[in-house]
Amino acid sequence: MTSLTEAAQNDAAASPAEPVVRAKHVWKLHKLGDEVVKALVDATLTVQPGEFACLMGPSGSGKSTLLNIIGGLDRPTKGTVFIDGRDTAALSESQFAALRHDTVGFIFQSYNLIPFLSAVENVELPLMFEPVDRAALRQRAMDLLELVGLAHRASHQPAKLSGGEQQRTAIARSLIGQPRLVLADEPTANLDQRTGAVVVRLLRDLCSSMGVTVVASTHDPLVAEEASRVLRMQDGRIVSTTGQPHPPEA
Amino acid sequence: MITRGLSYGLLSARRRARDLILPVITTATGAFLLVQVLSLAGSVRRQAASLGNGAEVYRAVLLISVVVLLVGVVEVAVCATRTISQRTREIGVLGAAGVRRAPVVAALLVEPVLAALAGAVTGSVIAVVGGVAASAAGLSSSAPDAAGAAAGVILAIAVSLIASLLTSALPTWRAASVPPIRSLSSGG
Description:
The complex is a heterodimer of chains A (about 250) and B (about 190). Chain A has one domain: Rossmann fold, CATH 3.40.50. Helices cover about 35% and strands about 25% of the residues of chain A. Chain A contains eight helices and ten strands. In chain A, the strands form two sheets. Chain A has a six-stranded mixed beta sheet. A four-stranded antiparallel beta sheet of chain A has the order 2-1-4-5. Chain B is mainly α. Helix content of chain B is about 85%, strand content about 0%. The longest helix of chain B is centred in the middle third of the chain and has 36 residues, at about 100-135. The two termini of chain B are about 25 Å apart. The interface of A and B includes residues 99, 104, 112 and 114 of A.
């Protein structure tokens, strides 16, 4: 098996010019009774391979909505979203699911680990339903747990892991399918500052050493400090962008 | 993919064995009653016939059997609903990871089907062994009817399996069809 870093870098190098995410004039409107709530207003962004982009803003600013639309967990009311060069509007739900499976990894605020599976089984989960070689899958999951510093906790169930360990397990799980894009929704929200810093550094390292593109939503300044680009959101709009739209140096 | 789903379902059923105890017990109770009723039906009918109202008593016995079966079906349905509500987030995680619906449904069906099978077999075995033991010990005035007991066992297992599939398949399919974002935001 190719090393994780090597495989990811080869993958990232395959189409260097194509942005991983291209969202144009994306709107999301919710109807609440007679009122129309603008969850997302004319959001436009492009994320290049290897970038660590951070959507920053207070609760209700639209960052999670944008993240969910990028990941295909939600559909925009209008606007276009291209993931890895594919127009997601043209995809059926099952085609989008296949795109997610092959291209996107998710990290959730509340980890969402399966309580009856061990850490290594949780990492394997997205590929457990695939006709893949079990031994190779287990080895890859162990490599990823090693990467996040949890190989010694592989057989522990989530209830026996701390919050930081659970989130690192979730990060390993997001990488099992060798995704080009990892979407992290408030990855440090349930963690103390020190543990949050470990998780953020891990996300940054994914970009610099493995060429994975990370888009994270957060209101944690620590995440913004480590990101290569920060997009500030307010009332559903992207109000400012700081940083470079290029991957940071390794 | 379906095979992998079934294999994941077996793994989760093994790990969640404690959650299966209640549905197994309730299904076993239904199966026990059904086998008991059918194994004693013959002798009850004969005794009732000697009193001159065999047809009415037999209809009453059949009615009791049907009620017992319906209770069993409801128990299996409740088990399926409980399982799905407990595993909603898991379904959301699998959906977010792009796992297809069919293997997810196959995985989720393993648990109610296994619970129904285990419950039906357990209840049937207890009913048959208990009936024979009670008769041998002289605690029962009439010996259980072997043909009735066999019919009860077959019926209990068949009805439990079919009911578990019928009552689980649709809610499971529906749950797996819910957009992952909704499953993930649920409390289950």
